[in-house]
Amino acid sequence: MNAVDTNVLVYLHDTRDRVKQAKAATLVTSLADGVLLWQVACEYIAAGRKLKHIGVPEQEIWNNLRLLRLSWRLVLPQWQHLDRAEQLTQRLALSFWDALIIAVAQESGVTTIYSEDLVGLGSFPDLRLVNPFAP
Fold first, then answer.
1. 86 inside domain
2. Domain hosting residue 120, numbered range
3. Can you say whether the dihedral through the CA atoms of 98, 101, 107, 111 is positive or negative?
4. Per-residue pLDDT at 120
5. What is the number of domains present in the chain?
6. Does residue 103 lie within any of the structural domains?
7. How big is the CA angle at 104 (ends 56 and 24), to the nearest 5 degrees?
8. HEC states along 51-115?
9. Is residue 33 part of a domain?
């Protein structure tokens, strides 16, 4: 299974970088086995609302989230994910939010997370971090 980080979803709407916008659209539409991590969904709504200043209506973000739920499975954090995130923050000095994304992904069978931001945090057993915007 595959997941995307918030930045990939935000680029779907950000016309300031047409190359990243096109790459994000291609990736998101090609992930038949996509998983939407609950935290990413929440961050997407919050970050998407900040795109009003470039002409992206808030309703567009909500509508896209509804489209994603038609084909992707939503994964909610569980108590054990918080425990795992705590371990990751202590062992690797990750931010709590990054650690939570990684913990939920690892324990939910996600094998790849596409993210511009998470790449470089290190390597994780059975989980690849891929920057879809890298040349």
1. no
2. 2-76+109-130
3. negative
4. 80
5. 1
6. no
7. 35
8. HHHHCCCHHHHHHHHHHHHHHCEEECCCHHHHHHHHHHHHHHCCCHHHHHHHHHHHHCCCCEEEC
9. yes
The helix (run of H) or strand (run of E) holding residue 30 is helix 18-30
The CA distances from residue 73 to 26, 81, 109, 118, in Å, are 19, 17, 12, 21
AA letter at 68: L
How far is 52 from 84, CA to CA, in rounded Å?
Answer: 36
Q: What's the confidence (pLDDT) of residue 124?
A: 87
Contact 133, 23 (CB under 8 A): yes
At 126, list the tokens: 């059975």
At 60-79, the pLDDT tens digits run 999 999 999 999 999 999 99
Q: Which residues contact 64 (CB under 8 A, 6 or more apart)?
A: 9, 12, 13
Strands ordered across the beta sheet of 112-114: 73-75, 34-37, 2-4, 112-114, 128-130
Dihedral angle, C-alpha 82, 84, 87, 89, nearest 10 °: -60
Q: What residue type is assigned to position 30 of the chain?
A: S
| Domain membership flag for residue 97 | no
Q: Please give the span between the terminal C-alpha atoms of the chain, in angstroms, as a whole number.
A: 24
